Amino acid sequence: MQVRAKRKENSEEGARKSALLPTIPCLRFSYIKPAFNSLLALIISNNNNNLCVTLLIVAHSLALSPFDSFDQAVKKLLSCKMAKNVGILAMEIYFPPTCVQQEALEVHDGASKGKYTIGLGQDCMAFCTDVEDVISMSLTAVNSLLEKYGVDPKQVGRLEVGSETVIDKSKSIKTFLMQIFEKCGNTDIEGVDSTNACYGGTAALFNCVNWVESSSWDGRYGLVVCTDSAVYAEGPARPTGGAAAIVMLIGPDAPIVFESKYRGSHMAHAYDFYKPNLASEYPVVDGKLSQTCYLMALDACYKHFCAKYEKFEGRQFSISDAEYFVFHSPYNKLVQKSFARLVFDDFTRDASSIDEAAKEKFAPFSSLSGNESYQSRDLEKVAQQVAKPFYDSKVQPTTLIPKQVGNMYTASIYAAFVSLLHNKNSELAGKRIVMFSYGSGLTATMFSLKLQEGQHPFSLSNIASVMSVDEKLKSRIEVAPEKFVETLKLMEHRYGGKDFVTSKDTSCLAPGTYYLTEVDSMYRRFYSQKATEGAPANGSIVNGH
């Protein structure tokens, strides 16, 4: 009788355990002893819940489990869900309302007609006046995103900033932004700034995505800020300036999902663009070398990206496998050359996307070495001709903001992506977007995104609507080139300076915009927020307080 009762008890216990198995999510590494970690990591990477449970049962049978009972293990498992479909939930963009037309700048600089508009492919350039900088732009963009999406600052657990604009050699831009979160009692936020030319924003983005995907994630949002003011000394590089801040909210079940397994990177040492003079905001630029480095990095990243795609998918990748391509955009002409380079790369790989007519045009260049191909103007011309129809459909929709605002350094690639969302948001569900991020010095990565419409408010259509790109572009104030040059001279004089008060002229700024009011005798920077209608202006907020 006792034996029969024991068998019944064991049978019921087994049935109860079996019923629980399908509902148990993936296990985190720390709950199984180290001998099982590598196997468990493989299982988790494939989101196989049943195998996780099987491994747990084996661990119990071998006395390797840290849990006293199966019930305790199940409870722990149920509390440890791994994030899925991690990506961008929301975005916001801010750029200064002051801008100068490139045509007018051509006349002012005595340049030949079309040098900036056709030669560089640029239309307009935004710039900061004395009341704006990368910190004020970031404060504005972060505050705007949180307000528009109703995100409680306490829901943010990681804040990463990418920038190459040096305000302080020790104090990060992230710490300035913490003032928004401190007011709400949230100081438990990981992350700092990432810096390497125009690549820092991508590093910050990967850090946030990796955090949400990891066992360290605490269930809160990640927030990424890309902010820069690109300015150059008088000369041929000056028209390639610009300024902006872009903010991205990172979390699971996103409409913009990262396909991290295809990511391909290239890192090397080069002096193509750098800022060795800490007394000046202006870079040292080797324009010809910088373009060559960009294209070399593009080739290397595409090679690695394709190899990983082919490894996981079992077939060759070509430009026909993605609906859109988004590039870091110092100036539009380089974007045109870059996409054409990918088309030529597909030719050298004998990809199916290249038809016989294109192969015939590329044939004379098939024997060129890599270095020779980067310098060949004939190849560049032919490649752009072959790529033109693909460019018009796959790249042109990404070019609006970079052409209108200019080079935004870390924000440039994401401003191009914002342009795509603005132009094509109703057509993007189910589409793959390939992104190429480059930072001089040099660092580069090619990665891909898979889009789905998502659920309001975190939907593609709402992201595009909330950013109000058309409204922001149309409400800008065009200034004469003389005013632009005058502003840069003032900023040169004040760079690294102290004990001054700005003009506090906010007439061009929209309500809710943050602006710089003064830098005191201890180099501390004070900012205020322009009042919204019917509301008093916020009190000053200050560096370090």
TrEMBL record:
Lineage top rank: taxon: Eukaryota
InterPro entries assigned: HMG_CoA_synt_AS, HMG_CoA_synt_C_dom, HMG_CoA_synth_N, HMG_CoA_synthase_euk, Thiolase-like
Active-site residue list: 164 (proton donor/acceptor), 198 (acyl-thioester intermediate), 328 (proton donor/acceptor)
Entry's EC annotation: 2.3.3.10
Keywords on record: Lipid biosynthesis, Lipid metabolism, Steroid biosynthesis, Steroid metabolism, Sterol biosynthesis, Sterol metabolism, Transferase
Protein name: Hydroxymethylglutaryl-CoA synthase
Domain Hydroxymethylglutaryl-coenzyme A synthase N-terminal stretches: 83-255
One Gene Ontology term from the biological process aspect of the record: sterol biosynthetic process
Recorded family membership: Belongs to the thiolase-like superfamily. HMG-CoA synthase family.
One example GO MF annotation: hydroxymethylglutaryl-CoA synthase activity
Signal sequence extent: none
SUPFAM superfamilies: Thiolase-like (SSF53901)
Pathway: Metabolic intermediate biosynthesis; (R)-mevalonate biosynthesis; (R)-mevalonate from acetyl-CoA: step 2/3
Positions with a binding annotation for CoA: 290, 333, 337
Catalytic EC class: transferase
A Pfam family that the UniProt record links to this protein: HMG_CoA_synt_N
Stated role: Catalyzes the condensation of acetyl-CoA with acetoacetyl-CoA to form HMG-CoA.
Catalytic activity: acetoacetyl-CoA + acetyl-CoA + H2O = (3S)-3-hydroxy-3-methylglutaryl-CoA + CoA + H(+)
Keyword check for Membrane: no
Residue stretches making up the Hydroxymethylglutaryl-coenzyme A synthase C-terminal domain: 256-530
